[in-house]
Automatic annotation (TrEMBL):
Keywords (A to Z) from UniProt: Membrane, Transmembrane, Transmembrane helix
Name of the protein described by the UniProt record: Uncharacterized protein
Annotated transmembrane regions: 21-38, 44-64
Keyword Transmembrane among UniProt keywords: yes
Amino acid sequence: MMRRFRRFVAFWYDFIVGDDWRAALAVIAALAVTYFVHRAGAPAWWIVPAAVALVLPVTVWRVARARRQS
């Protein structure tokens, strides 16, 4: 039973975090900011797309730079 639980947790960790924990953290932060902005009564639909538009190029740049160095 414990082995199945570990596999389950490992799957979700790999699915959510993937290769870059910083990108996953940025998405979680964007979702949290979206929640709080929405609760304050302001339009919040634009926060997650803006975060993705900022985080995705940075993530791709970091991977490309790492591949060039190796």
